[in-house]
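Lab notebook, bench 4. We co-purified these components, and the gel suggests they stay together. Before we commit to crystallization screens, I want a quick structural picture of the whole thing.
Request: model the full complex, all chains together.
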Amino acid sequence: MTDTATPVTTRKDWASDQEVRWCPGCGDYSILAAVQMLLPELGVRREQTVFVSGIGCAARFPYYMNTYGVHSIHGRAPAFATGLAVSRPDLDVWVVTGDGDALSIGGNHLIHALRRNVNITILMFNNQIYGLTKGQFSPTSEVGKVTKSTPFGSLATPFNPVSLALGAEATFVARTHDMDRKHMMETFRRAHAHKGAAFVEIYQNCNVFNDGAFERITGKDVRSSMLIPLVHGQPIRFGADGEKGVVMDSQGHARVVDVDSVGEDALVIHDEAREDPGLAFALSRLANGPYEPTPIGVFRAVAKADFGSGMAGQVDKARREPGVEGLDELLRSGSTWTIG
Amino acid sequence: MTTTSGPGVDLKAETIGLAASLELPLVIVDVQRGGPSTGLPTKTEQADLLLAMYGRHGEAPVPIVAARTPSHCFEATIEAARIALKYRTPVFLLSDGYLANGSEPWRLPEMDSLADISVPFTSEPNHTGPDGTAQFWPYLRDPVTLARPWAVPGTPGLEHRIGGLEKADGSGNVSYDPANHGRMVQLRAAKIASIVSDIAPVEVDADEGAELLVLGWGSTYGAIAAGVRRVRAKGARVAHAHLVHINPFPANLGEVVRAFPRVLVPEVNMGQLSRLVRAEYLVDAWSVNKVEGVPFKAAEIERAITAALGGGDPQEALGLCLEESSLAVSQAAGGANGSLLAGGGASNGNRKGSGASPNAAAPRPDMEEE
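Here is the predicted assembly.
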């Protein structure tokens, strides 16, 4: 709204005066820190920034940001964010949600915000549990998970959020985790820069109700052999010495191999910009859960017209139609007549 | 603004409650259909009034405006938007299938003649913090309207967070303090109640010496006005008042309903306005109902008024009671009165049961009259 230079800010400027009330040790703290440390680097203004959330632990996020924010209702954050982003293209609109909020009651809003390519940045904290309500199974809880609401084990196949987003035509899909601030900040930076709907899954530890859910892949000692960094234009390799890699087999499935046994030329070159989401989808299916080698980073980033720009174009065109210069003209443009 | 023909209100109840808590403007247009559930999707009914009035969890009062003719929809919509914007509240605008599918000549208004309902957004801090810094408190209220300031994203220095959690009076920060919650509940209620001083009194079209008031709302306007003209043509003296504002009621409504020995409330529902009037003013409003997916006819209103004036039962005069045989179960279950289904309205209990078999529905009269 102003054209003066963006003021220099620090992390402190982006923190509100409200006490952060997540459980001590919650992964949400590190995500909040990553966002508050990133924003001063983005050249954006506090008054132009809006955080929108639904319901859940993650949904308290807006209260802790010294920006505009709304803590709305369960699952509906993408709906509120869509309205705001479309009517106010000058704003930076972030959605903060969780696996329950986004994938259960909010599944519908999420997929439509993604397919419409609304210009919003969605951070989905995935802790595979309902934490705020003290530990019930969520749409990402694994089969067999024993919780208060599944005393004999969950029967439901969990969503793979990255696969879901890709299936919903998302133009930007990424995954990161709460144990690596640098990786989070780089992933959020990319998501924010994307024009259109950006979806980021963040593996987040709920240390009270689902502690260690991602420990087997994000623990410092196992990370190099269990996390597969996706780097655009580079062969997909991982392991302490890059000894592991990913190939596509004859059935179109991604497979983990020893690089020595196939040679580097056989490895998949990651291409996040590929129009066809097939490669990204195959990579999203590489791990059956956070206990097998799991890709992190940007799965897909393709350019496509965003919803708000398209709508603004239609509104502008309609306003230029002859005879609709104002409401008076519009009202009198149809079947009207004059008496006397 | 959002629109529905009824089921959407069920779906949107959570968001309407949020709007009441956020204290932001929202107009919910309910073009009522026959219910319950999918019901009669293309037919008319007035059965969502109490849903509009009470259909939210928690204490969440919402103003209600009802259009009464197809052309009045224009004015009623502006009125609903005016209240929503000025008082920062969700507002229900009730229409129905009859109005939505109706038409009539409409004199186009000049836009310049319409009231300005634009809102000045807040652009400056409104509070000084303990350390002397200028702050913005999103829940500091206007002393007259009790509306809170409205600062939109993009306004420098007024960044703030709002949400569905209870807010501290003034600062708007999350608050679980018992006394604060009690105060906020009362403030939200008082804000909606205060709209009474900002709406027109209900007009009464009354004959000298009339002893019966016909009170309606919404799309029954035409049928009631025509029915009243018919009985007047035969020498009867009656009064007609038609509500546009149902929450809050116009300031003079209590005086109006108490000024007549009898009040007849025809509605295309089971007696929803009559319940509100009885509860608010402790008057014996007499409900007369027809819930068949079609509007009242002038002749039906005429029959009901004639019956009421003659000491008869207006509901029976409509001939819309269930057959006695089909009431058997209800009578067995509902007690000796047996009026459970006959008139549906809250007023039936002390009107029925005097003569023999008050619910013995007469064969339904012909309805050839328009």
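Chain A has twelve helices and eleven strands. Worth comparing against the SEC data before the next meeting. The longest helix of chain A spans residues 181-193.
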